[in-house]
Design a protein that fits this description.
By secondary structure, the protein is of the alpha+beta class. Helix content is 21%, strand content 31%. The strands form 3 sheets. It has a 4-stranded antiparallel sheet, with no helix packed on it. A 4-stranded antiparallel sheet has the order 3-10-7-4, with no helix packed on it. The chain is flat.
Length: 215
């Protein structure tokens, strides 16, 4: 088989060389026995079989009408939330805030510890603006990813800046007579949550929002 294939290639080479020397260039291209890659036909893909019970897709873009069956229920829920906010009958609120790369679930009078170097000093009052969620006994407001800072206010006070307990780190390398024992302490900042409040109606949108700050 290998001999036959080699003989075929040699025959094509000799034939093509002779034709190129005898005939002019245009005729040589016409009678060249070896087919070119761009002249080889490629088989088409087989069309997918569609069972007879499958619906035929329409040739136009189908418009799906919006479902407004629950519009009245949504409106009633929003009105109830706004009523509780106005009458201050929401109960004790809780929130999830984002501080220094971590999330904390807090409520009023809680104390949280922020690990690492942080600029605020003891006695400073802060407004935690990256609020991801606020909830009460009857409803929950979820941000995408954070809530509007004009809707929710979480106020806190820095009460202490200190160092953590002593942490030891032991390192060892096998069969290398390498042993190290290091001690270190990390900076910590203690925050007390003063209040969590919801300002205004939930569905109310202002014409201009957030121009004084870009997250």
């Amino acid at each position: 088989m290998a001999t036959l294939t080699g003989f075929t290639k040699l025959f094509n080479f000799v034939t093509g060389t002779c034709i190129r020397r005898i005939l002019p260039a245009p005729i040589c291209k016409q009678y060249y026995p070896i087919p070119k890659l761009w002249e080889v036909k490629v088989a088409d893909y087989r069309t997918a079989y569609r069972p007879p019970w499958f619906p035929v897709p329409p040739s136009y873009q189908e418009v799906v009408p919006e479902c407004d069956d629950r519009a009245e229920e949504v409106s009633a829920v929003i009105n109830e939330i706004n009523r509780q906010i106005t009458t201050k009958s929401t109960g004790r609120l809780f929130a999830i805030v984002y501080i220094c790369g971590k999330q904390f679930k807090v409520t009023e009078s809680d104390v949280i510890i922020v690990t690492g170097h942080w600029a605020p000093q003891p006695g400073d009052k802060l407004n935690l603006e990256k609020v991801m969620l606020v909830g009460s006994k009857d409803f929950t407001l979820i941000g995408k990813p954070i809530l509007n800072r004009e809707l929710v206010s979480v106020n806190a006070t820095v009460i202490e800046k200190t160092l953590s307990h002593t942490i030891f780190r032991f390192r060892r390398r096998q069969r290398k007579q390498f042993r190290r024992l290091n001690f270190y302490r990390t900076h910590q900042t203690a925050l007390r949550i003063n209040s969590i409040t919801i300002n205004g109606d939930v569905e109310k949108k202002k014409e201009v929002e957030g121009l004084d700050r870009i997250y």
